[in-house]
């Protein structure tokens, strides 16, 4: 009878204790993280990489081709396209990330309550959720922003009012399974209060899928911000923003395609990086 080889056991145990070592082997996660890091560094270093003022107009140098001074040329008002691309990325990434936080918190909290308490609480929350999801995502966001008026504040309110439903569904489903597990039953038997069970025991164990979804939700939020900017309902001029750049550049696609394609490519690359991170995290948590 052969004796099992135990020489690798300490190495395997060490890798399990250090999830970062395992994550480094996830090519999808690493590729998305590296790509997103490059984008974040580029927009943060915008004053260094693009010394021109993104809002400074030069009507004597409109629609200029790419040069050493203007790597992507100038737009119809003589503004540096490269500078506007980087500074616009700051706006879209900041709104895309921060606007997901409120829906995440609100949806997760309602999902916890609906899944754990059940009864009339679950019924009321789910009826409200069904009303919201009855309308298309973008149509409802555009309607809310149009009613409240264009601006960043209206974008946050609209995305929060619409985006919480996905997190509520995800967390509610996780809670319906988790509340029947042994550790929750033990907490109940020990006489722990409902708030403590929700916060200390359920929350850390049911938010994984919601966090993974948040990566793709950031992509949807950025697309919503860009769409609102294209329609003139988002960040208002002269502030640089990718949607506004698309709106002003699409009419020059035949003569100066850079104006309309560059911000679109930036949106696609940013979305790709976040999607890769989400897929990588889903694969990692699926192994555990």
Question: Mind explaining what this structure looks like?
Answer:
73% of the residues lie in helices and 0% in strands. The model is unreliable at 1-15 (pLDDT under 50). It is an all-alpha fold and 288 residues long. It has helices spanning 9-17, 19-23, 27-44, 46-49, 81-117, 119-133, 137-148, 152-178, 182-189, 194-206, 208-230, 242-249, 258-287. The longest helix has 37 residues, at 81-117. The chain has a single domain (28-53, 68-287), classed as Orthogonal Bundle (MetI-like fold).
Topology:
Blueprint: H1 9-17, H2 19-23, H3 27-44, H4 46-49, H5 81-117, H6 119-133, H7 137-148, H8 152-178, H9 182-189, H10 194-206, H11 208-230, H12 242-249, H13 258-287
Number of domains: 1
- Beta-strand percentage? under 5%
Structural class: mainly alpha
Which CATH architecture is right?
A: Orthogonal Bundle
- State the fourth-level CATH superfamily: MetI-like
Oligomer: single chain
Q: Total number of β-strand segments? A: 0
Overall pLDDT score: 85
Helix content: over 70%
What is the CATH first-level class name?
Answer: Mainly Alpha
Discrete helix count: 13
Q: Could you list the spans in which at least 5 consecutive residues all have pLDDT below 50?
A: 1-15
CATH topology: MetI-like fold
Short description:
The chain is mostly helical. The protein contains 13 helices and no strands.
Which descriptors apply to this entry?
13 helices; single chain; 288 residues; mainly alpha; MetI-like fold
């Amino acid at each position: 009878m052969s004796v099992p080889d135990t020489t690798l056991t300490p190495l395997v145990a060490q890798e399990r204790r250090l999830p970062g070592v395992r994550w480094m082997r996830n090519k999808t996660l690493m590729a998305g993280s590296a790509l997103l890091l490059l984008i974040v560094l580029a927009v943060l270093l915008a004053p260094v990489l693009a010394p021109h003022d993104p809002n400074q107009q030069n009507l004597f140098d409109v629609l200029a081709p790419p040069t050493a001074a203007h790597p992507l040329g100038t737009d119809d008002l003589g503004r540096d396209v490269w500078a506007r691309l980087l500074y616009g990325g700051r706006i879209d990434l900041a709104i895309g990330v921060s606007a997901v936080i409120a829906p995440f918190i609100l949806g997760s909290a309602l999902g916890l309550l609906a899944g754990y308490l059940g009864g009339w609480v679950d019924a009321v929350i789910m009826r409200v959720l069904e009303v919201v999801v009855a309308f298309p995502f973008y149509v409802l966001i555009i309607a809310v922003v149009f009613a409240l008026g264009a601006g960043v504040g209206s974008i946050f309110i609209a995305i929060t009012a619409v985006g919480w439903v996905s997190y509520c569904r995800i967390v509610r489903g996780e809670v319906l399974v988790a509340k029947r597990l042994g550790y929750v039953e033990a907490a109940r038997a020990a006489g722990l209060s409902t708030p403590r069970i929700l916060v200390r025991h359920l929350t850390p164990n049911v938010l994984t899928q919601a966090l993974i979804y948040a990566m793709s939700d950031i992509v949807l939020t950025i697309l919503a911000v860009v769409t609102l900017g294209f329609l003139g309902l988002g960040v208002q001029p002269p502030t640089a923003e990718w949607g506004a750049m698309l709106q002003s550049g699409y009419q020059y696609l035949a003569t100066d395609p850079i104006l309309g394609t560059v911000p679109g490519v930036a949106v696609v690359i940013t979305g790709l990086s976040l999607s890769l991170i989400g897929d990588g995290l889903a694969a990692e948590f699926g192994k555990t």
